[in-house]
Amino acid sequence: xxxxxxxxxxxxxxxxxxxxxxxxxxxxxxxxxxxxxxxxxxxxxxxxxxxxxxxxxxxxxxxxxxxxxxxxxxxxxxxxxxxxxxxxxxxxxxxxxxxxxxxxxxxxxxxxxxxxxxxxxxxxxxxxxxxxxxxxxxxxxxxxxxxxxxxxxxxxxxxxxxxxxxxxxxxxxxxxxxxxxxxxxxxxxxxxxxxxxxxxxxxxxxxxxxxxxxxxxxxxxxxxxxxxxxxxxxxxxxxxx
Amino acid sequence: xxxxxxxxxxxxxxxxxxxxxxxxxxxxxxxxxxxxxxxxxxxxxxxxxxxxxxxxxxxxxxxxxxxxxxxxxxxxxxxxxxxxxxxxxxxxxxxxxxxxxxxxxxxxxxxxxxxxxxxxxxxxxxxxxxxxxxxxxxxxxxxxxxxxxxxxxxxxxxxxxxxxxxxxxxxxxxxxxxxxxxxxxxxxxxxxxxxxxxxxxxxxxxxxxxxxxxxxxxxxxxxxxxxxxxxxxxxxxxxxxxxxxxxxxxxxxx
Amino acid sequence: xxxxxxxxxxxxxxxxxxxxxxxxxxxxxxxxxxxxxxxxxxxxxxxxxxxxxxxxxxxxxxxxxxxxxxxxxxxxxxxxxxxxxxxxxxxxxxxxxxxxxxxxxxxxxxxxxxxxxxxxxxxxxxxxxxxxxxxxxxxxxxxxxxxxxxxxxxxxxxxxxxxxxxxxxxxxxxxxxxxxxxxxxxxxxxxxxxxxxxxxxxxxxxxxxxxxxxxxxxxxxxxxxxxxxxxxxxxxxxxxxxxxxxxxxxxxxxxxxxxxxxxxxxxxxxxxxxxxxxxxxxxxxxxxxxxxxxxxxxxxxxxxxxxxxxxxxxx
Lengths: 241, 254, 315
Fold this sequence. Notes:
The structure holds three protein chains of three kinds. By secondary structure, chain A is mainly α. Chain A has helices at 2-13, 17-39, 48-51, 55-75, 78-85, 89-122, 133-160, 163-180, 188-192, 196-204, 214-238. Chain B is an all-alpha fold. The longest helix of chain B is centred in the middle third of the chain and has 34 residues, at 88-121. In chain B, α6 (132-159) runs parallel beside α10 (227-251) and α9 (195-204) packs antiparallel against α10 (227-251). Chain B is built from ten helices and no strands. Chain B has helices at 2-12, 16-38, 54-74, 77-84, 88-121, 132-159, 162-180, 186-191, 195-204, 227-251. Chain C folds into two domains: 7-224, Rossmann fold (3-Layer(aba) Sandwich), CATH 3.40.50; 227-288, 2-Layer Sandwich (Alpha-Beta Plaits). In chain C, 37% of the residues lie in helices and 26% in strands. Classes of the chains: A mainly alpha, B mainly alpha, C alpha/beta. Chains in contact: A-B, A-C. Chain A binds chain B through residues 32, 35-36, 39-41, 53-54, 56-57, 60-61, 64, 68, 71, 163-164, 167-168, 171-172, 175-177, 180, 183-188, and chain B through 16, 31, 34-35, 38-40, 42-43, 52-53, 55-56, 59-60, 63, 67, 70, 162-163, 166-167, 170-171, 174-176, 179, 182-187.
């Protein structure tokens, strides 16, 4: 496995897209925190959650990065070169997931703590201190959400194989479908409680009416991710490279 | 005219427009059916509510429009196109026109399809299209789709990569405009003037609250202009994007 | 035929269907150890599909292919056993040549020093840091060969390696193949050009429409494929045709002016003697040496029919 991890690490970092994505994710997330902190009025104090408004920017960009890490392999047929060098397809794809997830996790932590830190530098509100467990989970938890979302994206990328299709699904689903579902009369809210990205969001920003605890929500998101990953591995092993 | 025919042939001889049209229709009309099927006396059906799914169709149509041009770059058919028609602005305008027309038709089909299926499912509900607001809410969808397609083609020409163009369009329309409102004080003010909020204002603005409670339709947009000026603003934004795109395409190597 | 030579690649009943199309149809062949075997067939005959199945990339619908007795999937660090170049464009355009080889080396625990060795071997050292997307076809091909040689494998597979190359590139590849063969490696190389194979290969596997047409040495194939015919012209054409048929020849009319006969199964001496013995005047007696390419086209162009004929005559 260490060999495979080393291989996937070299592959990821020898193209430019992860570097660009990292810069963009951090820039947009932390930039949003700067905007919020600078424009915050005096009527109520700036709190930790305000500094994290931009985290979804970072999450979506990491999603794109993770999906591209695998769909470009299909597009340029390097997936064939890869499977030729390492016929153990599950091993290859799991290694890729690990490498992409670690990068996503690290970026998530930097984005979250970076956003919090710049907000703190701009605004001295005592409410900005990370004092409760909820505060800590909201900031430190971003890395976990990013890492899981990255694995989910790789899985979707394996299943779809095309950048355009994978990105459309991965962006339209969390940004539009999961939100619009709530508008369905009577049942919409109940359905939304079981939407994966909604649950990921509730891990960071819990809502009182949620059926799961924050950690339960994260576990659910992880479960959906695992299910997609297993489907992706089965499909990749079955079909022609 | 020949160019329009050429671009029409190019568009319909690949599969992605068909797929996108099918998906857009299925999702918007499906959403309309879902809304009317689950509605009851407490949350009654109305014309605006039949159009909840229109943003779905909008993003799908934008993906289709962006792909129409980025796939030309990907497969280098853009070079063949520019060889056949060295006048690049004309070639790109023809493509934009064809894509926009298709998007407009898809929009009308989605809108009237969603409305029609709701009428079928909930024949008792007041679903007559009577007021200007109701007409815009349904028939206006095609206009918005067509203009959004122009923006997507423009972005596609500028970015040239499918992945980049799609990521930019989807993240901008579904995330950036919304997140801007979270910036205290200035955020909501900026949001009033953002293009896709304007297009939403055309569909949902000036709500006719005499017939129903306001929360029974898509939430009305907080925009800086009334419905028709908002559409003009949206169209002007599309023209600016397209002009920038065409100027860039003229200058650079194909 | 070559029981004495070890079988490096062994395909048995290999079949690949895509929906209703049969790309490879019950294909069985062997590739001998330490020899250069040409894999010949027209475009679309199923060569690339067969190669992908050998490498475990595509799953055969039925049948099997083994490398030194093992499935490709079960090879430990396969690049050390088999090197392959199926498509020179299977690289990420924004990754440098060296980075491409570096990850490949890492995947099979090969030292990074080996990357520089193979880059040097194919003459790409000066452009090693350049992105592979900017490479010309010739350079891409060299990069692909470098990747194939990375694990210093005993078996090498090349799919149409000279396709689209300039004369210099073709010459370079040809020399390279000879060199590999001299080092005692097993080389399995596909081409749709018989002339190319005649210069590089010792053995041939010929397929058409996914089916095996011929397996054996190049010399046998040439002799076999270029079965000579004799063109005869005579004022007594009908009588001559009758005589030749009785004498065991196969006669076909020749549409030239004046009309003549194309005779196979008899050489010009036999025909001349037969004519003289029966008092028939000959105006022309001309042995035809068929060109290799023509013969090959004839064989593969109508693969199915030829195959049936082969089976019938060998039975």
